Amino acid sequence: MHFRTVAAILLIAPFAYSQAGPSKPITSSTSQLRSYTKAPTAKTRIKTSLENVVIWVDETKWKQEKSDGPHMLNLSHVNGDAWAVVMAGPIGLPTDTLPNLLLRGTKEADRNAKITFEDKRIVNGRQVAAVKLSILSEGVPFTAFGYLHGGSAGSVMVVGSSVENQFAKHLDDITELLNGLEITDLELRSSANREIVPTPGMLSITPSTSVMYDHKKWKQDLSSEDDSYTFSYLTDDVSAVVISNRLPIPLDIVPGFVLAGFQTADPTATILSKEKRSVNGTEMWFIKMDGHVDNVPLTYWGYFYTSKDGMVGAITISRKTASSEYEKDRMEFLNGLRISH
């Protein structure tokens, strides 16, 4: 079983989740969850693409295979009829959003794929989502079981799988492999415990990136998530979001990257126009898109800047019927994006 689609979504998801709205934080008490630790026989430490995430493996049971890319690790059971994949991306999505993200990617291969079990656990001191899925691959039923986690360093999914009628035989070894997941980054702060004191008229994203805006027209939402900041406008017809991530996307592929990200949340999203502009002395893309949310036609207008340090997007969203009415204020907000060099 391969999960390339899921790995791709991990890289573009920040745009999708910003449009879907802030995610609900995990609220269960960690003291009530069962705790798991790596097995004494898991003595081989394998690094992932995330500096703070490794997987400990028992080499008498699992061997590493050729990777499909820098964000994936492939493993196979020594007897040849069980497999595992470690997918890591630099976007720290809330852990409780990852099961549906995994399911969404799996449905690209099997539209009838479904989650059959979902739980929360503590693994080597860090809370994860535990998920079991039923999947049909090339006409053969498979069962997959995985641990999912989002933190400050990024998001990781470790998923083991086997043919359905062989899964019970391999469950212990798959679970032992999953229990080798070791994460040492910081926990993501949810909107429930994150203290935000916005500065009226200015949003500081990084030491070199900020947005200046008219605080009499725009109000920063206190429930904004890390790396995603939402704004409300004078009317409900318009809103805005500012997004940052750590992906150094080449400038020329930004439009395709942005569209793919939006389409994970809004499959109807299409680019109407795109052009490079100089905004406060910095070259970036100006992209206009159409889309729908809950069958309501929307327009997305945004500036997107990328450098070796990552990518920043400032986007305004409006009902299509009101788009031209608020054009001046929308562009004024976007033109407040400032990059210092």
> Considering the protein shown, what is the CATH homologous superfamily of the largest domain?
Mog1/PsbP, alpha/beta/alpha sandwich
What class, by secondary structure content? alpha+beta
Task: Give the helix level as a range of percent.
Answer: 10-25%
What does the radius of gyration come to?
A: 21 Å
CATH topology (fold) name of the largest domain? Protein Transport Mog1p, Chain A
Q: What's the number of structural domains?
A: 2
Bulk shape: elongated
Question: What number is the mean pLDDT?
Answer: 83
**CATH A-level architecture of the largest domain:** 3-Layer(aba) Sandwich
Number of DSSP strand runs: 21
Name the beta content range: 35-45%
Unreliable stretches (pLDDT < 50, length at least 5) are 11-29, 188-196
- Describe the biggest sheet? 8 strands, mixed
Distance between the termini: 45 Å
- The total of helices stands at 5
Strand order of the largest sheet: 1-7-8-9-10-6-5-4
Element-level helix/strand string? HEEEEEEHEEEEHEEEEEEHEEEEHE
CATH classification, class level of the largest domain: Alpha Beta
Explain briefly what this protein structure is.
This protein has 5 helices and 21 strands. By secondary structure, it is α+β, with helices and mostly antiparallel strands.
